């Protein structure tokens, strides 16, 4: 059986929207579950042009459903699975769509004005213009007129959402919130993004050709390989944007690779060889990977590790305050006693990482510190963060199932 369905009384729907009673809706949803499971009596959910305004469909499996032109304004779809669903021309204004799965969904011409899509999965979805068939008020569908509608996201909340590879040509997203969203590879040609907030958004290799970003905020946005040809950037805040890394990074006339090898030698020989490195504001991206490197005690505040592979890296006791680890792979890394204050770790993969206290001797230890760090959308499943500090840390959308936080300092 499906979850409880809640429908509130609605005003008389327009002619081209069909009222749906609770019983019929429940039967259709049950049949859809059988369809998805491949059981007898299954039937794909078809609610084209249905009036589902303010209906609760929270947490339901609606994969492949056909909701063309459906009225879902004010509806609750949080945590529902709508992957590959057809929402062509649907009315989703002010809908609650937090953490909804819309991967590869057809959202052409859909109106999501004011909708909350925080943490939603929209990778590969289609938000381009749609051509909507509208009935005549008097003659119904005997007389059809067509109206071109761009996908509308004006005033929508998409903070932390995954829009990688989304098709958003000509989309309307004025004053929308894309804070820390993943827009890598998205096609935003001619999109209207006036006054949009794109702070910390990953726009790597996105196409913004001819887009209007007048008055937009793009602080700390990642613009590596982005196409901004003929884009309007009047009054756009580009403070601290991250562009393509240099082909090679030098420290005191030595390549970064040499410097890191010297630090690693110090760790390997317990100080008999090499030298502990104290760096600042270094772009480590030219190295591409620090996988399983031994870099305990590294001092590199305000440095860039964006998108890098640090799986299994040993960084015990390292000073990494203010560093950029957004989207980095830090699985199974040893981060005990490391300092990540004010660091950016949005969408970082920290599964299985060791983030507990680092013993310095009998009854002495130093804790891993994430105070004021941004861990929005980070994956901490199975990590060990006993006694770690998360004071004033941003944890929106972070996945912490199975993470040991025994004795951790968290905001109450």
Q: Low-confidence parts, pLDDT < 50 over ≥5 residues?
A: 6-15, 141-146
Shape, please?
A: globular
Mean pLDDT: 90
What is the ordering of alpha helices and beta strands? EHEEEEEHEEEE
CATH class of one domain: Mainly Beta
Full CATH superfamily name of one domain: E3 ubiquitin-protein ligase SopA
Quick rundown:
This protein is low in regular secondary structure.
What would you say this structure looks like, in words?
This protein has 412 residues and is mostly loops. The protein is built from two helices and ten strands. It has a domain at 248-412: Pectate Lyase C-like. It has helices at residues 22-37, 256-268; strands at 18-19, 50-51, 130-136, 140-149, 250-251, 254-255, 358-361, 364-366, 389-390, 409-410. The longest helix has 16 residues, at 22-37.
Mind sketching the topology for me?
Elements: E1 18-19, H1 22-37, E2 50-51, E3 130-136, E4 140-149, E5 250-251, E6 254-255, H2 256-268, E7 358-361, E8 364-366, E9 389-390, E10 409-410
Short key terms for the protein model shown above:
412 residues; globular; single chain; 10 strands; two-stranded parallel sheet; two-stranded antiparallel ribbon; little secondary structure; Pectate Lyase C-like
